[in-house]
Amino acid sequence: MELRRPQVKDKESVLAMMLEFEQESAAHDGGFWDTENFDYEEWLEQNFDHELGLNLVDGMVPSIQFVAFSDDGKALGFLSLRLRLNDSLMMSGGHIGYSVRPSQRKRGIAKAMLTQALQVCQSKNIKKVLVTCHSDNLASRAVILANGGQLEDVRNGIERYWIEVEAQVDK
Predict the structure, then answer these.
(1) Which residue of 44, 63, 93, 124 pairs with 89 in a disulfide if CB–CB is 3.0 to 4.6 A?
(2) Structure pTM?
């Protein structure tokens, strides 16, 4: 599995994954799009702008949009890496949001995605990463704990975990 920025060549695979999320009415944390007026190429441009901190709507921070791909090019999941935190993200959301395509869950993909994202964090000089999940999301909790998450607290049903990046990347 490879976690990387989506490209034009990935359009068919990413659109198929988006459709699956929508058909399943599944949450797609880590992947954001306007279902009403979606244009793939514009989405790619918007992702590029957001990474540079350009054209952000109020409350948004610079972020990198990643997609996980199988070796044969199938889109497996979304991951958004926020490059800094604001007050809202400190409460819920954190640095990283992720979701795995419904048909690909329970295969270790989320764990691998978060592991690879921590390597990107290290390259961006992010030393501690906040990752959150709802208290009833046992799968996400397990992914966070498997990547070294340390529970700080629970706020309004949101568990807040910190991960020491260097300790996880160097192990």
Answers:
(1) 93
(2) 0.94
